[in-house]
């Protein structure tokens, strides 16, 4: 027997683990030739058909027997994963605003024919899904192999028992989405990657390594590696494990290794073995220096390598304290976090690593250092990116428990699936140093009842069982009774909004660690400004004051009743440093939940004290919408759905990156109809003072007072020309920005976020189209229709403009701009290198081209 977990030293038959500490760094090539595990992409060559409720609302009966192998799928659509069938549209007026007005409901069938060579006889073959939306049922060659209903969970099935080696096999996947399964746009289809994994019969189990660092100091770190080994054979097998630890990086540098003695695994069983080793002078993982290590675990059978498995990990310490927030590697780190939904704008839910990386880069540039994966397990690549980029993560599991928020939300699965889903999340993600906390829920309805407390305790127990090294949290939006006694069911309290409760909470609950799990919820539309600018004095004004024509003014003063401005939240966190920081709702706009322009019939909003208050809000909202509610994506983002920053971006940057010299002026300065009219000017700067000039004349110098984060010139009378701000810090010039009045629209200007991309069929380039005058100043209200043409080895996979009311398709070859900007997302074609050219055209604006290099 391999030794059971934690008990190896008591097991005489299992030889003591030899700990070899190599302090001298060695470079080593892995013994790759004899590794039998293979992981290959299974994203290519799927066939797809849709049944039940169709895109345009018609109904197509699902034929019986589609799981059977001899189905004629020759006229099914051929596609490559990831695929989101709903992002193809169309936006439909009859579909709920909250879910993005896109047809994600219905049934989707995917079929893939593949051959496994004779040489794979005797291997175990698994299919791994990172996520399939939703209620997946998987069949191989007519046989049911398994199902996983929660669309955000990763899962795998063993195909071996039904696999025909040397012959053709058919894998069939049935998905089904019901309307109102979530409060936002869930996406639809096999929207994350799929892999085929082949191993020897004796191999490291699924998510079978768990690496922790129980002791960390400047001089050394203890690394504990728990390995789960599976023997599928009918006979017992002797097994030896070897762990080699490398500094991860372009060049792997070996820093330690250890070998277990021989153990034996019984037939058809699983054993866990634990090894520890020491790292000398560990390079710690931190937000500023995200150093990573890699353990290569080899399984040896009679000296022969039968499996090799890589686990990335980091050496770092984390601690939440009641008095002084969050500590990383022994020092306080303020959580400057954002909540992110899973969609990637015009790409929908279809996961593209580069699109996620771009979101994270934009957030990091703003100064964010943390993400909350609201409100569900993310794609695994998000964690890999955060590990590499030094971003802290709250990994969240659920938006509801046993009580539903919408008709078909997670409550329909909770009883049967919560443990499996939670275990899948924790086992998949527990080696990532970026993950600092597990969240078992968000604003779950039952939290403040005895039942809720019981469920919360149970979920925390499951998580602690799977990973005792990280705290568990829940995000709660209820202020009374002061966070309730559920607070004992978690390790760290997540407070959604309820800023009024902060001081009371701290006074009444010494000893509890807390952070703002959701903050602000300010709403705005990029580039929209309405006059006069009146700062709201009550909840109704806050909701309605900034809204017009289904858009919201970008003076950053408005939001739903429970919201506060970013500035108010900054002040609170400065006053109460016990709070570990905040997670702003949200970093990016997302599809669905266009509060306040929701159709309020489908979800009783969560942030009201009682039903009467919610009803009043619904009425106010109906008046606001005047019966029309056509918005399909949110206004909460600091950045719009396409990744174009709104003004608020610079308010956060000014506060979160105090050492980065910057100044930002709002609004834009092209108002031909406002000559001599009062047009307030706000400046967001990381400086502490600023002077504003209009056409060279000073409009005064203002300085920030305590708990003030924006500078305001409320009485500026508009004159065309040049508006300039000069910011100062400590009395010295610090940053400048100039805003010019635009002339006549004249040209389209194209720029790419990356002009050399990989010819791997996954890589993306994000191309911004700006409508400008002849001098290069953006026309701030331009909405021209732009035609796109692409030649060379690339395809346009997404178009958008960041307007939450826009119902044009995210796909195709034309899209209108919104307030001067439009976005095209270009994807390469696997194996086809070359020059990709994008040509754009718009009436009166001529033609512009841009080239990319795919290699
Ligand atoms: C919260 C909720 C979020 C989102 C937000 C909008 O109550 O947790 O998912 O709905 O409100 O302000």
Total count of strands? 49
Order of strands in the sheet with most strands: 24-25-26-27-28-29-30-33
Tally of structural domains = 5
Percent helix, as a range, is: 10-25%
The gross shape turns out to be globular
SS class: mainly beta
Notes on the protein architecture:
The protein is mostly beta strands. It folds into 5 domains: 7-28 and 201-313, Immunoglobulin-like; 38-198, Galactose-binding domain-like (Jelly Rolls), CATH 2.60.120.260; 318-523 and 559-594, Glycosidases (TIM Barrel, Alpha-Beta Barrel); 647-667 and 669-740, Sandwich (Immunoglobulin-like); 747-854, Immunoglobulin-like (Sandwich). The protein is built from 9 helices and 49 strands. The strands form 11 sheets. It has an 8-stranded parallel beta barrel with strand order 24-25-26-27-28-29-30-33, surrounded by 4 helices. 50% of the residues are buried. Beta-D-galactopyranose (GAL) is lined by residues 375, 442-443, 477, 496, 518, 521, 560, 585, 593, 595, 606-607.
């Amino acid at each position: 027997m391999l030794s059971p977990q934690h008990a190896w030293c008591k097991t005489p038959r299992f030889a003591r683990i030899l700990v070899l500490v190599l302090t001298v760094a060695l470079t080593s090539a892995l013994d790759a030739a004899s590794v039998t595990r293979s992981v290959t992409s299974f994203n290519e060559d799927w066939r797809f058909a849709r049944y039940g409720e169709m895109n345009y609302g018609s109904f197509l009966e699902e034929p019986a027997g589609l799981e059977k192998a001899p189905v004629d799928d020759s006229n099914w659509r051929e596609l490559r994963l990831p695929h989101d069938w709903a992002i193809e549209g169309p936006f439909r007026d009859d579909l709920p605003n909250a879910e993005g007005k896109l047809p994600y409901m219905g049934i989707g069938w995917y079929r893939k024919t593949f051959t496994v060579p004779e040489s794979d006889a005797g291997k175990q073959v698994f299919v791994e899904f990172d996520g399939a939306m939703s209620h997946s049922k998987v069949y191989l060659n007519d046989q049911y192999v398994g199902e996983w209903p929660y669309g955000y969970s990763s899962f795998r099935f063993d195909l071996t028992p039904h696999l025909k080696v040397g012959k053709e096999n058919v894998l069939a996947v049935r998905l089904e989405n019901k309307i109102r399964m979530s409060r936002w746009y869930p996406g639809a289809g096999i929207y994350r990657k799929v892999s085929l994994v082949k191993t020897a019969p004796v191999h490291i189990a699924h998510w079978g390594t768990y690496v922790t660092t129980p002791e960390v100091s400047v001089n050394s770190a203890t690394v504990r590696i728990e390995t789960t080994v599976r023997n599928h054979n009918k006979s017992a097998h002797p097994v030896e494990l070897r762990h080699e630890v490398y500094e991860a990086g372009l060049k792997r540098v070996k820093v330690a290794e250890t070998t277990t003695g021989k153990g034996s695994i019984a037939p058809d069983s699983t054993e866990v073995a634990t090894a520890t080793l020491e790292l000398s002078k560990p390079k710690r993982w931190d937000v500023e220096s995200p150093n990573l290590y890699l353990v290569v675990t080899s399984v040896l059978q009679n000296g022969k390598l039968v499996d090799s498995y890589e686990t990335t990990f980091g050496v770092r310490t984390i601690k939440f304290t009641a008095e002084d927030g969050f500590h990383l590697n022994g020092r306080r780190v303020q959580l400057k976090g954002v909540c992110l939904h899973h969609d990637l704008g015009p790409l929908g839910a279809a996961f593209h690593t580069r699109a996620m990386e771009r979101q994270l880069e934009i957030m990091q540039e703003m100064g964010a250092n943390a993400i909350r994966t609201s409100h569900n397990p993310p794609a695994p690549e998000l964690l890999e990116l955060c590990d590499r980029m030094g971003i802290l993560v709250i990994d969240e599991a659920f938006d509801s428990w046993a009580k539903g928020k919408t008709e078909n939300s997670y409550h329909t699965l909770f009883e049967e699936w919560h443990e499996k889903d939670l275990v899948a999340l924790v086992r998949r993600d527990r080696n990532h140093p970026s993950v600092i906390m597990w969240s078992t829920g968000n604003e779950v309805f039952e939290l403040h009842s005895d039942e809720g407390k019981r469920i919360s305790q149970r979920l925390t127990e499951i998580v602690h069982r799977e990973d005792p090294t990280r705290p568990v949290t829940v995000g709660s939006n209820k202020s009374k009774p002061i966070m309730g006694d559920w607070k004992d069911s978690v390790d760290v309290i997540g407070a959604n909004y309820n800023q009024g409760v902060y001081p009371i909470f701290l006074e009444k609950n010494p000893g509890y660690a807390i952070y703002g799990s959701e903050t602000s919820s300010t709403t705005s539309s990029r580039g929209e400004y309405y006059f006069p600018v009146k700062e709201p004095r009550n909840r109704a004004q806050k909701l309605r004051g900034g809204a017009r024509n289904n858009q919201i003014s970008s003076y950053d003063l408005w939001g739903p009743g429970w919201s506060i401005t970013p500035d108010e939240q900054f002040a609170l966190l400065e006053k109460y440093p016990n709070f570990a920081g905040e997670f702003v709702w949200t970093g990016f706009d997302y599809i669905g939940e266009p509060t306040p322009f929701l159709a309020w019939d489908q979800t009783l909003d969560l942030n009201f004290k009682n039903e009467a208050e919610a009803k009043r809000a619904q009425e106010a909202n109906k008046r606001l919408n005047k019966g029309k509610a056509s918005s399909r994506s949110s206004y909460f983002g600091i950045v719009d759905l396409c990744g174009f920053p709104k003004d608020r971006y610079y308010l956060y940057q000014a506060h979160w990156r105090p050492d980065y010299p910057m100044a930002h002026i709002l609004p834009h300065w092209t108002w031909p109809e406002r000559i001599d009219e009062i047009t307030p000017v706000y400046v967001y700067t990381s400086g502490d003072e600023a002077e504003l000039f209009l056409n060279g004349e000073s409009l005064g110098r203002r300085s920030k007072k305590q708990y003030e984060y924006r500078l305001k010139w409320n009485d500026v009378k508009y004159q065309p020309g040049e508006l300039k701000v000069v910011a100062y810090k400590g009395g010295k010039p610090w940053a400048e920005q100039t805003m010019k009045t635009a002339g006549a629209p004249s040209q389209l200007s194209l720029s790419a976020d990356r002009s050399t991309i990989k010819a791997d069929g996954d890589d993306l380039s994000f191309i911004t189209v700006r409508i400008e005058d002849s001098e290069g100043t953006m026309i701030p209200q331009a909405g021209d229709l732009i035609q796109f043409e692409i030649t060379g080895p690339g395809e346009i996979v997404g178009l958008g403009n960041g307007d939450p009311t826009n119902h044009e398709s995210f796909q195709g070859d034309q899209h209108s701009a919104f307030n001067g900007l439009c976005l095209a997302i270009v994807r390469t074609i696997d194996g086809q290198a070359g020059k990709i050219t994008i040509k754009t055209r718009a009436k009166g604006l001529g033609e512009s081209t841009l080239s990319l290099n795919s290699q």
